[in-house]
Amino acid sequence: MTQVGSAERASYAQAIGTGVATPPLRVPLSDLALDDELLAAVQETIASGWWSMGPIVDEFEQAFARFCDVPHAIAVSSGTAALHLALLACGCGPGDEVILPSLNFVAAANTVVHTGAEPVFCDIRSARDLNLDPADLKAAVGPRTRAIVALHYGGFCCDMRAVTAIADYMGLPIIEDAAHAPGASWRGRMCGTIGRVGCFSFFSNKNLPIGEGGMVVTHDSELAERMRLLRSHGMTTLTWDRHRGHAHSYDVVAPGYNYRLDEVRAAVGLVQLGRLLGGNAARAQVVDTYRRLLDGVDGVTVAFGDRTDDASHHLAVVVLPEGVERERVQEFMRQRGIQTSVHYPPIHRFSAYAGSVGARTLPVTEAVADRVLTLPLYPHLEEGQVEAVATALLDALAVYHDI
Ligand SMILES: *Cc1c(COP(=O)(O)O)cnc(C)c1O
Fold first, then answer.
1. Reported pTM
2. Crossing angle of helices 55-68/263-294, nearest 10°?
3. Which position among 72, 146, 206, 260 bears the catalytic label?
4. What digits encode the pLDDT tens for the residues 366-379?
């Protein structure tokens, strides 16, 4: 079997009359590559007869730890579970505040709330640099601050030099939300390994897709032990250990969770890990074309368009000129078969977080949030498709700008 993406699968489905009522997208936002190696990995694991967390999860953890050059990697059931464990391991709880940028996926804020702590939102730097603004992060620190969740937006490392200086001065742990950043590095270190704990997501539209899954990494053995316990109900032994006769009973030393990963998805993860850097390099090529065709053209800013460091290029985000109705642009592009998205509606604007900004202000987030637009990006996106996306965007702007 050759590589087949979901766009083609949708048209196959339609051709054989089983699928989709709307015309298939020519260019989806993201797309999975399928092949025999992945199918074989799944098949072998199924055939092994052991499906829940066991030796393949172990192998995936070890391979990921080696890849990141970090002593501890703990596989979990999602990126959200990774964030929750990281916050708990850093001691976040009722009465605490955790600082994070509002221009982020909601999982970080939700998990802060689940620990009993309160999220405090900070601003971003600019339309060019959608990562947190260290000056505003510093301004957000108060007597109740317990941790900082630093997102590497789109797989571009945030200013970890400045964030680390603030965190060290204040004695705060940095939890890196590296959901977008597997394989990205900063000054020779992998994103996710610079702070106290790094959290990765392997959701199907991420750079290392396995369906649902995640990983926490840390240099700290004590934190790693705590997260391992909390991942599996706070139990001192695992089903796999008992199955092998290595343990016969267990104690429960903390009321934990079931945040385990399973063998089938770990097997997929091992294959995907081997492809990660090649995939990221292919993404970088696509992004180069977007930069060339769009950055500075007709008022469009390509986010991080000036960055030449080792990013993972999870997202291709542009910031539209002021006054453009983004939804009209999206509809125009959809008519051309191009799927777009928004990363993200800022968290503080959601109903569940109404009033959460308090006396703080987030002027840059407010100015940029209605203008960010995410374009299709995946490793096997072809040059001609990238050009079609760029042309569609510029055509949409010609229609909807200055009318
Ligand atoms: C995807 C994502 C998450 C959550 O990961 P899941 O694996 O979907 O739970 C958290 N933060 C960011 C920035 C993400 O993009």
1. 0.94
2. 30
3. 206
4. 999 999 999 999 99
